């Protein structure tokens, strides 16, 4: 009986990991002829529309617990932080490979630990967690490459740009927990996506002139996959896992997403990965494990 119950959870974990790893693949394809701002504006609009449809099907009230200006302000701030993180993905992948970008997602648990300990005070400082964060960062250094770090070239600056986006995402997650306690996660996510779409869409209209008939079919399909599958369906499966299997189990995707992202870049885009980068990935994953050691939250 236990195995029959566990099976769907494992399948769900693998599914959400594949969908979120596919983000880097879809972005790389879309970036070929669509400007980065437009890529992520389209992602936000498509995924917000998808979530509104889900809310309608589930008959969840959108404004029942989110009418106050305080809640709307928090949704807007968090949504714009997510929008910035998304933009850094698309902008960095104009330089980085999808595999390289997938490597860098390993910084997200480190940024969450840093913010939880030193800013939000939601985590207890432990030396073993600090050691884990340091190990993870050293692994990321291997992945970026010593020559890129020393040269200070485009790959380094694109990596740092994406890392700044991951920090912004961690801040957004922390603020959502603090300011939006009790809000249905579907409603919370929909509002975050709405404000992300509003911010990114406005910037895309100003700077990108996003409406073009010259976009390739592959790029447009990648936008659809990015908005509907990697974002919309990915969120649904993740929330289902949190509800049924618990947040600790659902968050194991943090170990799978970078590995699957690298594999997908190699398999579907023909990208190359060095043995030093593979070593760096496993060093970073080991560091993540140590940074989460004995962390009740």
TrEMBL record:
Keywords on record: Membrane, Transmembrane, Transmembrane helix
Alphabetical list of SUPFAM superfamilies matching this protein: Multidrug resistance efflux transporter EmrE
Membrane found in the keyword field: yes
Subcellular localization(s) per the UniProt record: Membrane
Topology relative to the membrane: Multi-pass membrane protein
Keyword Acetylation listed: no
Domain EamA: 12-144, 158-291
Pfam families: EamA
Signal sequence region: none
Transmembrane segments: 7-27, 39-58, 70-89, 101-120, 127-144, 156-175, 187-207, 219-242, 249-269, 275-291
GO CC, any one term: membrane
PANTHER family, alphabetized: AMINO-ACID METABOLITE EFFLUX PUMP-RELATED, INNER MEMBRANE TRANSPORTER
UniProt name for this protein: EamA domain-containing protein
